[in-house]
Amino acid sequence: MEGRFALGVAKKCIEWCNNYFGIDFPLKKCDLIAIDRFYAYAMENWGLIMFREEAILYDPEKTSSETKDNIALLIGHEVSHMWFGDLATMHWWSDIWLKEGVADFIMYLSIGELYPELQTWHHYQSDVLLQSMKMDALNSSHPIEIETLAPYGLNSM
Asked: Which residues of 111-141 are buried (b: 16+ CB within 10 A; e: fewer)?
């Protein structure tokens, strides 16, 4: 029961991405799994998206509207990876910024169109864009693309 909202968002996002990218989702299904104490908040794989339980389950009697909004955004982000990240994959890990940046853009675009009441672009401008500009202005900031030649350098990204 608590997964119905997430399932509905995922279905709408897949249909939205089919239209936006002009490429139909090529798999017969996409599974969403809520995992207790999952190490990541969410992780997409080809045809399978895994979520930490509290990141995806929604109970209208107990869950805040902010959490509901975050569930929709998270699903929009992970579903977009089926096209940009899985169907089209980066050459090397140094390009991860592009994969995640496009997924964030598609997340705000798709959820903004599917759920206009969430005002995702307002959230993007007031929270994400301004925070990014602040971080970029720090002396400790680094380029978005970092050359990584070996797997042990991936953790610094």
From this structure: bbebbeebebeebbeeeeeeeeeeeeeeeee
The pTM for the full model equals 0.86
The answer to whether 95 and 145 are in contact (CB under 8 A) is yes
The tens digit of pLDDT for each residue in 32-69 reads 999 999 998 899 999 999 999 989 999 999 999 889 99
Residue with tokens 């969410």: 42
Is 113 catalytic? The answer is: no
Q: Is-contact 109 42, C-beta < 8 A?
A: no
SS3 100: helix
Per annotation, catalytic residue among 15, 54, 78, 117: 78
Q: How far apart are CA 157 and CA 154, in angstroms?
A: 6
| Alpha carbon distance 7, 83 (integer Å) | 18
